[in-house]
């Protein structure tokens, strides 16, 4: 029997408040612009993110790909960390839809510096792709859930804008960064031309992401959403859960981080080799002495689900559906297999 699911914060179930809001949501046809609950969500999210407008889309991947489509033309160059979600986990979507090319940069905690960016941008030449977009991820999944500080975001964004590039932040877990850094999401999103925010990760909604930017950006993004099949009809049922997520989710993320720290302290005391970013959030990466898949199978037999991130790397993610008792139980289980 599986007691504890530490695979991802995407496994959460809608809260009672979300289910009630969904059942009572006022709806209309959103493709016609007639769903009042979607409109409320988009207005609320734009305000929270400090942007002029926002768009409700089915997924974080779609949000990122719409941003790429809106900011670039075919053959343009995107500067991105080689471990970023938009490169690593979005099924080559940029190649399929926008025809853009990635210039892969490196750096600790999923971050590359302004100096790295300036060095990577080649001079204008017909042999080179046109440099167009910088894509940052905050928090950074494959960097152990690392939160990227405002100073770093500002530094890279200022460099990008000086070079004539636009900036998009994949802020799927931007509220996790906000909690870890004790800074409003609007401040962290401020330097970027556009930002995405996932409602169905740490915030706990069942479906959906937000893409925010200027009004003209969102107007064009809405057209791309439709062309990608993302136009939804009575989507207020889903938007209602998103509104509740924005209201109740941030306080619960505080608890996610606290429980992740508790789990970290316990695992380190047991002798587990943890990979910890400079500014951690709700993730823990364990470097295993045995193949990660073997350790994951062992944990599953004991009642814990985890995610493989490499041949000898396991990811654990705390979330709103894991209470204090679940974390205590997880600690006990890990104690039984401690190195």
List the helices and strands and how they pair.
Elements: E1 4-5, H1 16-24, H2 36-49, E2 53-57, H3 60-71, E3 77-81, H4 85-88, H5 93-97, E4 101-105, H6 114-120, E5 131-137, H7 150-162, E6 166-170, H8 174-181, H9 185-189, E7 194-198, E8 209-213, H10 215-227, H11 236-270, E9 273-275, E10 283-287, H12 292-302, E11 304-305, E12 307-310, E13 313-317, H13 324-336
Parallel strand pairs: 1-11, 3-4, 3-5, 5-6, 6-7
Antiparallel strand pairs: 2-8, 7-8, 9-10, 10-13, 12-13
Notes on the structure:
- By secondary structure, this protein is an alpha/beta fold.
- It has 2 domains: 4-10 and 250-336, Alpha-Beta Complex (Aspartate Aminotransferase, domain 1); 16-245, Type I PLP-dependent aspartate aminotransferase-like (Major domain) (Aspartate Aminotransferase, domain 2), CATH 3.40.640.10.
- The chain has 13 helices and 13 strands.
- Strand 5 (131-137), helix 7 (150-162) and strand 6 form a beta-alpha-beta unit.
- It starts with a strand and ends with a helix.
- The model has no long low-confidence stretch (mean pLDDT 97).
